[in-house]
Amino acid sequence: MVNPELFNKKFSITLDLAKALAKIIEDKAREIKVNAVVAISDCEGRPVLVECMDNSYIASYDVAVNKAYTVVSLKMPTIQLKPLAQPGGSLYGIQFTNDSKIVIFGGGDPLKADNEIVGGLGVSGGSEEEDTFLSEYGAKAFEKMIELISKG
């Protein structure tokens, strides 16, 4: 018999938590003048929330969702995946796997609680540098949110 407690998750991303995180990221995006799409997934890469800021690119929707998927699938930020996926890299060609949902440029970060990946964050709409900044900013904000929740 399998112990059912092995399947209990310590933490899951709720819609309310995802909305709060998206607002933080969108406020920062407005500050740096980026019309971003923010996607937040659960630990299995399924979208919990996708928000498109006014005048964001249509293409950014799929890119943001796929960045959130990529970071939970490969357990690393997309900016760290980038050099591994270049010609000669150990993961060269990985972007053509998983129905081409793997994104190999910056703007995606895992969301962690108690050092475990509990979700993914994908941001798209600016340059790679802007998207990476916003996703890293969001991941740090998420860690602070989890600390506050843990303290009660």
Task: Summarize the model shown.
The protein has four helices and four strands, in the order H-E-E-H-H-E-E-H. The chain has 152 residues and is an alpha+beta fold.
List keywords for this structure.
152 residues, alpha+beta, Beta-Lactamase, 4-stranded antiparallel sheet, 42% helix, 18% strand, disordered N terminus
What does this structure look like?
The protein has helices at residues 15-31, 59-74, 78-84, 128-151, and strands spanning 37-42, 47-52, 108-113, 116-124. With 152 residues, the protein is of the alpha+beta class. It has one domain (12-151): Haem-degrading domain (Beta-Lactamase, 2-Layer Sandwich). A 4-stranded antiparallel beta sheet has the order 2-1-4-3. Helix 1 crosses helix 4. The longest helix has 24 residues, at 128-151. The protein is globular and about 50 Å long. Residues 1-8 have low confidence and may be disordered.
What is the element layout, followed by pairings?
Elements: H1 15-31, E1 37-42, E2 47-52, H2 59-74, H3 78-84, E3 108-113, E4 116-124, H4 128-151
Q: How much is the radius of gyration in Å?
A: 15 Å
How many structural domains are formed by the residues? 1
Q: Please estimate the helix content.
A: 40-55%
Mean pLDDT: 93
What oligomeric state do these chains adopt? single chain
- Determine the number of helices (DSSP H or I, runs of at least 4 residues): 4
Going by helix content, strand content and strand pairing, the class is alpha+beta
- 3D shape: globular
CATH homologous superfamily caption: Haem-degrading domain
The CATH C-level class name: Alpha Beta
Please identify, by name, the CATH architecture.
2-Layer Sandwich
Secondary structure tally: strands: 4
Task: Output the CATH topology.
Answer: Beta-Lactamase
